Amino acid sequence: MNAASTRPAWQALVTHHAHIGSVHLRELFAADPKRGTRWTVSAAGLHLDYSKNRIDDETVALLSALARDCGLRERIGAMFSGEAINTTEHRAVLHTALRASPDERLWVGGVDVVAEVHAALARMAAFSEQIRGGAWRGHTGLPIRHVINIGIGGSDLGPVMAHEALRHYSQRDLDLRFVSNVDGTALAEATRDLDAAQTLFIVCSKSFRTVETLTNARAARAWCLRQLSDEAAVARHFVAVSASAEATAEFGIAAAQTFPLWDWVGGRYSMASAIGLSTMIAIGPDHFRDLLAGMRAMDEHFRHAPIERNMPALLGLLAVWNNDFLGAATQAVLPYEQYLSRLPAYLQQLTMESNGKHVTRDGEPVGCGTSPIVWGEPGTNGQHSFHQLLHQGTRLVPCDFIGFGQSLNPLPADGSRAHDSRDRQHDLLMANLFAQAEALAFGKTADEVRAEGVPEALVPHRVFEGNRPSNTLLARRLTPHALGALVALYEHSVFTQGVIWGVDSFDQWGVELGKVLAEKTAAELAGADQARPAHDSSTAALIQRYRQLREERP
Ligand code: F6P
To answer: Can you state the percent helix, strand and coil of the chain, rounding each to 5?
Structure first.
């Protein structure tokens, strides 16, 4: 496989960058009065304005040519049709089948995976309704009121993000909690005020071998049994989601209590599967179906729209442009929507576990920068913290702003909660979003600062150089459908970036070494042998220091 940077289209972009790299967004906007409406695309209820990127017609043409040269269209076809595009694990990549419509058919290894998906969704819906309606009774006959999802990585971040994002649609008398960290504090705090008789644990693990999850699940079972004092209680208070029914049975959760997953669903792409059981319990099957519909709408757009009008493809190509040609190492995601507070954390795994790779699918060095470092916080909080660096720091940080036309909690000026008067508080929130993107792009020149009468000594401090790229995503309101479209948008943007870099976006070998060393070290810490362990001098000394500290009196 040719490294991306050796392709003619890449080289053409290098040459092109030498020209446009020094052109300011002020000039680009001045040269084209229609720029702000021309560089936009709408799909699946989302509207993307990408005009505040440092691009012109030639940039978009060259990036599209690069995508064609890298076979983006063919790779999209291969993914949707179930080819084993995760080559290092010999797996198909079919999270799109999780939201396929029930009348579709997709055969993988002689099995219609769409039929399997819908059978699983029906089981999830029936179980969710039992929990929501109180028909499912705990061991002592009481209804479930607390649901604790135990999982980590993709078995946690999607459910956490979706629960927060769709809280407005959730059944409020059900209390959902999430435990991921193997730090015992997570489980202790999640259970400390709960009655086990009214608590359900969902143990989510695709592999059902993840140490953190199994450790927490065992501790949760012990907590449950301490209160209920009967092994039989486990059957009423624990369900599992896993691709391995054997492993869940070994743990003590029967097949009837296990919701399926398949090896063609990557952990970080699994929130539409039974990993989303907690989401479905919270918002109900109908809203969950709306979430899937939003994903499906974006899937269809990604599959069929030409690259130049394809929202995820454009977002991905712009990320490559900002990363590899403008030298931006990080990418900020700034939702101006409190309910999306966990979206940046979710996107960190999606993006960085997918494309944080140093070799191509053939095992050759990639020869260019790969995944940007993703981070972010909801606006306007970030404005009073790290936006200083975004505006005047020495690093280029492209930003994705995300906002909605309507708040889910309109607050009229007088503080009452009537829905018929203008929501000035939401206007204020959105005014801040628009202002941030505008300030980043256009800045303020020294002459403009002087014209305000600022003393000369302060002028450099008050200058904003601008020319800082951003995308703005808008939708009418944060619905399950909009969230689904947003998640699928980023999934496919990440896919596009991976295709350009030629990496396997669906494996995660980089997490293995730490796991192996942790296992070895945990055995050493658990053992009675206090001998100096076989590690480098720093690690060995730290372990010894830890052993001393853990014996000290509080
Ligand atoms: O260690 C990384 C990882 O494999 C992620 O890719 C995955 O989302 C997470 O661990 C949890 O895996 P599982 O669902 O198998 O417990």
So the answer is: 55, 10, 35
pTM (global) more than 0.85:
yes
Helix axes 8-20, 57-69, angle to 10 degrees: 160
Residue nearest to atom 16 of ligand 1 (CA): 205
Nearest CA-CA partner of 160 in 282, 337, 334: 282
Note the pLDDT of residue 412: 73
Would you say the CB of residue 210 lies under 6 angstroms from ligand 1?
Answer: yes
- Ligand 1 within 6 A of 505 CB? no
Q: Is the CB of 213 under 6 A from ligand 1?
A: yes
The CB of 206 under 6 Å from ligand 1? The reply is: yes
* Active site members: 353, 384, 515
- Is the beta carbon of 180 within 6 A of some atom in ligand 1? no
- The strand ranges marked E within 154-277 are 175-179, 199-204, 238-242, 258-260
The low-confidence residues of the chain, meaning pLDDT below 50, are none
∠ CA 110-248-281, rounded to 5°:
85
How confident is the model at residue 3, as a pLDDT? 83
Distance CA 311, CA 514 (A): 36
Angle at 357 between CA 352 and CA 358, to 5 degrees: 145
SS3 assignment, position 91: strand
Q: What is the pLDDT at residue 532?
A: 64
- Res 414: pLDDT: 61
By most ligand atoms within 8 Å of CB, the mutation choice from 91, 152, 214, 352 for ligand 1 is: 152
Please say whether the beta carbons of 365 and 3 come within 8 A: yes
Ligand 1 atom 1: residue of nearest CA: 511
What does the alpha-carbon distance between residue 537 and residue 409 come to, in Å, rounded to a whole number? 56
209 alpha carbon to ligand 1 midpoint, in Å? Answer: 9
Strands 199-204 and 146-150: parallel
